[in-house]
Amino acid sequence: MNGLFDVQLVVDDQKGGTNSAxxxxxxxxxxxxxxxxxxxxxxxxxxxxxxxxxxxxxLEDGALPAxxxxxxxxxxxxxxxxxxxxxxxxxxxxxxxxxxSFQIPEEIHDDDIWFRIYLTVTxxxxxxxxxxxxxxxxxxxxxxxx
Length: 146
Known about the structure:
Layout: E1 3-12, E2 18-27, E3 32-37, E4 43-44, E5 49-58, E6 62-63, E7 69-77, E8 86-95, E9 99-103, E10 113-122, E11 128-137
Parallel strand pairs: 4-11
Antiparallel strand pairs: 1-2, 3-5, 5-6, 5-9, 7-8, 7-10, 10-11
């Protein structure tokens, strides 16, 4: 039987002392998901509509149906190495679709923000795979006239 299982080891020293540990074990072949749109390195301007599209396959199941897909989009602030780095939920989860779109709000004016799109595909055994794609603002030319 394939899937994700919790196993527990219990140790007893036969003198009243016991300890235990639990570990999740994945049995079987996990699926593979991929974000095909937006492309790697994609950028955005405020007001843009971003279209997302993904694929999912599994060794046992073949091409995964739309019901196997779940999407989340987060708005991230500050570089990941910055102690002030954080994210805001932006969209989702959106389940049961292979594609969709969202609009970049006009109100976004920070230079150090970006969006991260997450695709999680789940096979018939309950095993999952997560893919991500980052999209960044179009760089501003500091020498460009206002």
